[in-house]
Design brief:
Helix content is 80%, strand content 0%. By secondary structure, the protein is mainly alpha-helical. The longest helix has 29 residues.
């Protein structure tokens, strides 16, 4: 029985971690000009963006 709980908790943790990255990526896809501008301010050459 405890192994089922561990499996469910592990799955939930992985799902929530994936959700963090999906939400962050979605915001970047919505404003590509802002991301390019930010990358320029931190020193990334424009041809790499």
């Amino acid at each position: 029985m405890p192994s089922i709980i561990i499996n469910i908790a592990s799955f939930a943790a992985r799902l929530l971690l994936a959700l963090i990255f999906i939400v962050a990526g979605w915001g970047k896809l919505q404003d590509p000009a802002g991301i390019v501008g930010y990358m320029g301010t931190v020193g990334l050459p424009a041809f790499l963006v």
